[in-house]
Amino acid sequence: MQADVYFGSTCTVKSIYKEVHSPYNGEVVSHVAVCNKDDALEVLRIAHKAFKDTKNSPLHQRIHWLLDVAEKLEKEKEKVAQTMTREVGKPIRFSRIEVDRCIETIKLSASAIVEINGETFDTTATPSGKKTLAFYKREAVGVVLAITPFNFPLNLVAHKIAPALVAGNAVVLKPTSQAPRTAFLLAQLFIESPFAIKDALSLIYSGDGVNDALVQSPIPRVISFTGSVPVGREITQKAGIKKIALELGGNAATYIDSSAEIALAASKCAVGAFINSGQVCISLQRIYVHERIYEAFTEVLVKETEALHVGSPYNAQTFIGPMINEKAVTQAKRWVQNAIDEGAKLKYGFTCKDLMFTPTIMVDVTEEMNIVCEEVFAPIVSLIKVASYEEAKSKMNHSPYGLQYSIFSNNLLMVQDAIDNLEAGGVVINDIPTLRFDLQPYGGSKNSGIGKEGPKYALMDDYTQIKSVVIC
Is 247 a catalytic residue? Predict the structure, then answer.
């Protein structure tokens, strides 16, 4: 048995590996290479050397490179979707959607790079100036270290490597070890493309000393990480002087105003709370409902939740599959039980067999309970009755996180206030905070992270840098 990695353009067989088991039935579905510090140093060396070629490559080659990958991924869509479902238990309907989104993200990156331009200046604008030709240009930063999680093991990889490569950087990709084959298949398309720049992309997995070797090295000029707050904090402390982009999750909330359409809000909230078993950074976790419609909304939300199909991720009708592992399930069960012990009430769900955690609705919660104030990352949502929008806004903002919030309201002044005063990187009106379009800037405030994803914005903020030029 073996597992493969890419050290630059070379596919390397690693004899030391771990089995990856399906979260749904425990079957061995793939194998992940166990890498080490020496491997990390090698891929960094390869990437550092390759950057001399990537930064000088013609832009048309890099654009055709991405478009070639997108075209081939379209042909491999079902294979990649099935691989994703086997590795992380994502229902196949959503795995197929993720492949489609990945294709879009790659195409968006190819088009966005054309918009990233410089600017000229008239240096006679000030008395101290003189007549020159002055301008700035954007250029590639260098080596990019991309670290990605399990919950979107394909599209979040694309959000990092596609804009980074098309900008002319070299990339070291360290994807989750829980979905190694999914990332490998995408990396393979990039590396084996006829338009590929030799050694521009390397793939490495976790192992003793790998993280520290990658993060602490002076070679990466950018670290783009999606994951937990503790790991993000550790990266920040160890990285040194580098660009760091962190997407660290959230505690998404919405407010349902008395002017909202209850049926619409409830149907959307059921999706936002329970899609991907709640394992989404912008999963809806807190629902603040105006007291005048609280009972009616709760009743409809329960009915919408009852209609969600829980079962095999291979069934096209399944909405909720398994959680990723036993550790995640154990924490979710403990937090719900702790809330019940502290006075919260179970409105629906909270049954669990193996890793199949049914969608769970909690009521009579308090702001101090873990299921309310922390990131749950499980199919658990809490309903909180409020007397006004102002009360909801205060409670929504009283969080260490600030990724995305939303409100359901037909009150224009309330909508304007929410846009201006909700403390989050994104605000959604009359839909769930789980809504995200790949072409938009995406990223949070406070503990939710630093920087923005979305190809155009990642290109400007993370993967290119400004060089100022003056010709006298």
Answer: yes
